[in-house]
């Protein structure tokens, strides 16, 4: 625990000395000093030593996993003065509208067709006595990640791997989760639903041997039986999912799971279908003995889409079914279209691809090394990829697919290094050099893998923070605009990277200059602003960083744009160190 304490102290030193305003093109990692990386290394070493002990001390392992969550998910929250991502502020606006009006705003945004998560947020704000949920935005990511820990521990315990590999998988789940989907959003809540349902299914139904040899009864050829055993293990001959709880407990659990499936169907567009695929994978691999739960989950998802979300799909069926079967187009919108921008941005994007590829490569090795009674993990890791052939979720579809499979990919990756069902770390007999040195080899391997993934995730997870995070000045500029905005006036921005949307949902007219051009340039945005001349215009550090990092604009381009606007009818209404508010007042 000394290493854990030192790691915590170094994290505090790191975030205390980090200067948010000095953030460079690589994002958050550019303001984290030596203390962060030294502390992370100490936490990794401490975790590896605890994992390789002959007798596992699980309470201490939980402490190290919580430290991983602190380093990976709470660092940005501690360094950055406000909540990151425009969507988190917009979601706060959705919650605020329901809180004030008691109903959704039909026709405003497709996300309002799945209002369950926003309604829950309104209930939470009312219960906490808060006028809005803005106070929850900043620290939401580490809180929701801690909530993921309980179902993850259940999944690893009943997944068929040994306890040591299960704890290793939990660490990999967190240190490889660079996909920023844990901000204040319905998908973060629904991912918790996803994990809870699968954890309950795996815990209640466990594979038990039943004397039944269908291969002998059907007299299949010997080579068929041999390949079946190689591919699927012994479960096809006699392993079946058997309930281990009583009937009353089972009925209560099923009622709770149906309620969770209903909540998921009402609050997110994609998660219910990923859950149906996961339950189908459990059914095919005989970790789910009956199909009723999957059928109910699918019926609820389709029923809500047909009835509750009718405002979304009416007249927009192409948006739902237009990409069915167009896998190459979907992959292009998810991968190739993102590999653009400055050298720093390209480095971050390519490192994300390499990190994910490395995890799947390690998982592939785990598939070959482990000898399970059931291939449920492989099926659960592969099932989300079926969403690519049927979904139309924009450029984030592939990210969600990787995220849905991450718990099971992590377990397979852990099995590549610790493949046995039972593990004795210190063997009694010493028969060779490798056997004599198995403990330091395993310790070094675990430490190198975890540190490599955690270092890469620290870089790429905060790689966009230079333009996706906001300063106090930018928030002050937005609040100033809210205070001076009048009906029928239009608020303009250069891009969407502004903490805007938490107030006045549906009543404020918004103009985004970058969205007016398919390939925005400074000249095209100048023309769009000169033509539309929104009443209020916000210039900020985040938007300037977006132009330089993502679009490749020259340094200082926003200052030139400000001069152009001042010469075309705008005047500076208020200014801060990292934000400026201009007002259109020709002839003033």
Report what the structure shows.
The chain is mostly helical. Among the domains are: 53 residues, no CATH class; 101 residues, no CATH class; 119 residues, Rossmann fold. The chain is 61% helix and 6% strand. The strands form two sheets. The protein has a five-stranded mixed β-sheet, with helices on both faces. Strands 1-2 form a two-stranded antiparallel ribbon. 46% of the residues are buried. About 3% of the residues have low confidence.
Q: Which residues sit in consecutive blocks of at least 5 with pLDDT less than 50?
A: 211-218, 422-431
C-alpha end-to-end distance:
66 Å
Gyration radius, to the nearest Å?
26 Å
**Helicity, as a percent range:** 55-70%
Report the sheet with the most strands, covering strand number, pairing sense and barrel closure: 5 strands, mixed
| Order of the strands making up the biggest sheet | 4-3-5-7-6
CATH class of the domain at 470-588: Alpha Beta
Shape: globular
CATH topology call of the domain at 470-588: Rossmann fold
Number of helices: 29
Number of strands: 7
């Amino acid at each position: 625990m000394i290493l854990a304490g030192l790691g915590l102290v170094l994290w505090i030193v790191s975030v205390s000395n980090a200067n948010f305003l000095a953030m460079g093109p690589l994002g958050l990692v550019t303001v984290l000093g030596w203390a962060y990386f030294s502390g992370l290394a100490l936490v990794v070493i401490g975790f590896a030593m605890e994992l390789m002990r002959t007798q596992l001390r699980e309470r201490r392992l939980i402490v190290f996993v919580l430290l991983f969550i602190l380093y990976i998910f709470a660092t940005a929250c501690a360094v950055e003065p406000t909540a990151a991502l425009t969507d988190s502020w917009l979601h706060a606006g959705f919650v605020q509208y329901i809180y004030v009006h008691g109903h959704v705003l039909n026709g405003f945004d497709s996300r309002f067709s799945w209002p369950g998560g926003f309604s829950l947020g309104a209930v939470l704000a009312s219960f906490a006595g808060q006028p809005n949920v803005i106070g929850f935005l900043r620290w939401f990511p580490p809180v929701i990640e801690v909530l993921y820990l309980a179902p993850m521990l259940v999944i690893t315990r009943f997944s068929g791997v040994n306890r040591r590999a299960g704890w290793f998988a939990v660490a990999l789940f967190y240190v490889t989760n660079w996909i920023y989907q844990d901000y204040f959003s319905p998908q973060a809540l629904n991912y918790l639903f996803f994990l809870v349902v699968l954890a309950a299914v795996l815990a209640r139904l466990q594979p038990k041997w039943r004397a039944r040899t269908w291969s002998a009864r059907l007299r299949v050829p010997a080579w068929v039986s041999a390949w079946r055993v190689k591919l699927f293990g012994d479960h096809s001959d006699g392993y079946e999912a058997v309930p281990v709880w009583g009937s009353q407990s089972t009925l209560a659990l099923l009622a709770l799971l149906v309620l969770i499936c209903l909540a998921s169907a009402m609050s997110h567009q994609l998660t219910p279908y990923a859950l149906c695929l996961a339950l189908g994978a459990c059914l095919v691999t005989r970790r789910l003995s009956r199909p009723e739960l999957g059928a109910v989950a699918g019926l609820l998802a389709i029923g809500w889409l047909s009835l509750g979300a009718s405002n979304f799909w009416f007249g927009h069926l192409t948006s739902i079914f237009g990409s069915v079967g167009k896998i190459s187009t979907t992959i292009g919108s998810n991968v190739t279209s993102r590999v653009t921008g400055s050298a720093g941005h390209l480095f971050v994007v390519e490192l994300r691809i390499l990190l994910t590829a490395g995890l799947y490569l390690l998982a592939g090795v785990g598939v070959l090394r482990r000898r399970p009674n059931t291939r449920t993990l492989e099926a659960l890791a592969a099932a989300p990829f079926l969403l690519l052939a049927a979904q139309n979720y924009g450029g984030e579809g592939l990210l969600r697919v990787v995220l849905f499979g991450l718990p099971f990919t992590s377990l397979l990756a852990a099995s590549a290094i610790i493949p046995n069902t039972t593990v004795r770390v210190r063997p009694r007999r010493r028969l060779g050099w490798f056997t004599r040195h198995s403990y330091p080899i395993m310790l070094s391997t675990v430490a190198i893998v975890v540190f490599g993934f955690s270092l890469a995730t620290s870089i790429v997870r905060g790689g966009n923070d230079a333009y996706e995070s906001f300063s106090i000045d930018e928030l002050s500029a937005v609040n100033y605009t809210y205070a001076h905005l009048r009906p029928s006036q239009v608020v303009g921005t250069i891009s969407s990277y502004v903490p805007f949307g938490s107030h006045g949902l549906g009543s404020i007219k918004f103009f985004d200059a970058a969205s007016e051009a398919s390939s925005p340039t400074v000249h095209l945005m100048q023309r769009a602003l000169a033509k539309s001349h929104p009443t209020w215009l916000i210039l900020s550090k985040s938007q300037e960083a977006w132009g330089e990092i993502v679009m490749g604009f020259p340094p200082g381009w926003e200052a030139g744009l400000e001069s152009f606007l001042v010469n075309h009818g705008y005047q500076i209404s208020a200014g801060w160190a990292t934000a400026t508010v201009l007002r259109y007042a020709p002839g003033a």
